[in-house]
Amino acid sequence: MSQRMIASQFGDIMDSELAQALPAVEWLSLPPGAPASLPPEVEVLLAATFPNDPASPARQRPAGWPFSLKWVQVISAGIDSYPPWLFEVPKVSTARGVAAEPIAEYVLAAIFEHAKKMPRLWIAGPDQWKQSRLGMVRDTTLGIVGVGPIGLALATKAMALGMRVQALRRSDAPLPVPGIERATSLAAMFAECDHLVIAAPATRETHHMVNAAVLAQAKRGLHLINIGRGALIDQDALLSALDAGAIARATLDVTDPEPLPAGHALYAHPKVRISPHTSAISSYIREALIAKVKRNLARFDAGQDPEDLVRGDAG
Questions:
Q1: pLDDT tens, position by position, 165-179
Q2: pLDDT at 282
Q3: Are residues 165 and 227 in the same domain?
Q4: What's 178's domain CATH number?
Q5: Number of domains into which the chain is organized
Q6: Looking at the structure, do residues 121 and 266 belong to the same domain, yes or no?
Q7: Do 133 and 249 lie in a common domain?
Q8: Are strands 42-47 and 4-8 parallel, antiparallel or unpaired?
Q9: How many C-beta neighbours within 10 Å does residue 307 have?
Q10: Is residue 258 among the annotated active site residues?
């Protein structure tokens, strides 16, 4: 691998581990957001997510962009948090797949938490000694909307637990894991599933894909889990469905906006569990991301496209 300089916004911990993994590279650490300038020898940028506020100076196109850049590797699987000008670089690739394992485990934890009535199952004294019937995970039906690496990792683990798995994907390509059933529609999934995971990307077509009409089809006792993007769910419609008893539980690792403003009804709703977009955060993801950067850098040096190149036509 030839000597080069790479600019990174991945943070001190990641930059230190990257420097150990790729000692022949000179690393230029930058804060997140729009770089004011870059040395002409920098052809590669590892880009962190940008601030949410559209008016933030960190989201404004810098003079001279895209400098000498030939490739940008973003830290996330989704690209909705980046300004359009970032994609003026010849090649932009995503971190698709690096968070599949920790997110799949998060989803399973949420499913077990709901089925086994935790933490309210635990007691603090003999006066609370009252047995209750717990739910089962085995033989329940799990729906997965979006069959990327996260969906596939989750499906494999769920089937090993004896769950029936349905999946909905936008392409007609065969499902790569034997045993997954192809769902006919989102509404049909809501009508049949006990737990339903939203793992689709945020695009114009998927905005509020879970709306009042879809929620009205929900099977009694449905547990809805969103680890995709907050905008995939119409949150006002979700609140109405929860209040009406159409949805038994909503586990949300993502919301719209993030964070929700203080006092938002979802925070205090007894049927809602919110985590701060943290299902992917683990030591595992650092290792997987470093491995992906190394693979993609080798491909870049060989004149090949990086893995998971952004397709503008797919949104």
A1: 999 998 888 898 999
A2: 92
A3: yes
A4: 3.40.50.720
A5: 2
A6: yes
A7: yes
A8: parallel
A9: 15
A10: yes
Low-confidence residues of the chain: pLDDT under 70: 1-2, 312-315
Based on the residue annotation, tell me whether 114 is a catalytic residue of this protein.
no
Q: Look up tokens 């990641």; give the residue.
A: 14
Name the active-site residue from 114, 223, 229, 249.
229
Among 226, 269, 247, residue whose Cα is nearest residue 107:
226
Q: What's residue 1's pLDDT?
A: 43
pLDDT at 191: 98
Residues 84, 198: one domain?
no
Whether 307 is a known active-site residue: answer no
Domain check: are 224 and 191 in the same one? Answer: yes
Catalytic residue among 88, 181, 205, 258: 258
Predicted local distance difference test score (pLDDT) of residue 300: 96
Same domain membership, residue 138 and residue 76: no
Residues 159, 34 share a domain:
no
Instruction: Look at residue 192 and give its three-state secondary structure.
Output: helix
212 and 234 co-located in one domain: yes
Q: Which amino acid is at 28?
A: L
228-274 pLDDT, tens digit per residue, is 999 999 999 999 999 999 999 999 999 999 999 999 999 999 999 99
Residue range(s) defining the domain that contains residue 299:
4-97+282-314
Task: Say which of 169, 208, 269, 277 is annotated catalytic.
Answer: 277
Residues 6 or more apart from 237 whose CB is under 8 A from it?
208, 210, 211, 212, 215
